[in-house]
Amino acid sequence: MTSRPSPRPARDLPRTGPERELSAAAQSVVAGDRRALGRIISEVERGDPSARAVVQELYPRTGTAAVVGLSGPLGVGKSSLVNRLLQLLSGRGKRVGVIAVDPSSPFSGGAVLGDRVRIERDPSEAGVFFRSMASRGHPGGLSQSTRETIRLLEAFGMDTVLVETVGSGQVDVEVHNIASTRLVVLVPHLGDEVQTLKAGLFEIADVFVVNKCDLPGADRAARDLSELAQMSPERDGWRPRVVQTSTLAPTGIEELWQAVEDHERTLRESGGLAALRRNRAREELRSLLLAGLQSRLAEALASSKEWEALVEEVGEGRLDPYAASERAYDLVRPRL
Ligand SMILES: Nc1nc2c(ncn2[C@@H]2O[C@H](COP(=O)(O)OP(=O)(O)O)[C@@H](O)[C@H]2O)c(=O)[nH]1
Ligand SMILES: [Mg+2]
Asked: Do the Cβ atoms of 181 and 207 come closer than 8 Å?
């Protein structure tokens, strides 16, 4: 194989087939070059089109990893669990990628210090790749950056990808939903949280993790959650399972991973995986279409004289915004 970069943009390349020659950037990812991988992920985060082209080239080598999402409130121990899972999985010879989405301060846009995964192992170890991503930036959206980073990690050779998000907003739920198995992490003394759970969290959890089970109240919390799980409808042959863990001793980590594997197997055997992939594809296509439309709309508006005239009319109260937006739509439609 040569490392000659492809002179053509990826969009003109054949879509599949082993004969296709990879660009130098794509080859370096496949060859396990960690620095190249890190650089391309940064480009993905910035919305650099060349990174998109690399992901597109590598697409035939993706879709292979178990993608496990860990979500839940700040401080429940998600990063500590990631660390313990890394130890368990790399001990079993697995190759694991970690994506940690940091909550950003609304004031500085910077990542909150101290919420980095504490990796006790050497992170340069071949089987582990850790990436922290800011939750802001991402011209194509955080969910899209996450999808593309997962694909790069798969092409790099990872068979498992752990994605940590703080389960606080709509975007977090979107990112969490990219995973094939979704863990929602909680702690004892859920109190009123259990009530809120009924509303939202059940739909985004395949496994509930009651972490910090070294603290009092864990049995009770696990029991409450199990009762709720029993009442919730089965999805693809699966009801949410409840596992207690502690990252201190540690305890329950193997049971947690067993639940993940059971869920992945159930998905495959029930046909749920095909449905899940179709749903994920629908979500991604819609978001790509929307992003494309948005940027074409912005271009069309920027170069339209009539648009500014419409804005002025609405601003001065001579035209209502509903009529104006319809006229604007007619103006830009041919260019969308
Ligand atoms: N008692 C106890 N503390 C834990 C456990 N797991 C994590 N912690 C502590 O909880 C705090 C938050 O942990 P972290 O993993 O950063 O939580 P995250 O915000 O959900 O990622 C840290 O001080 C951890 O040491 C556990 O199993 N038991
Ligand atoms: Mg964390």
From this structure: yes
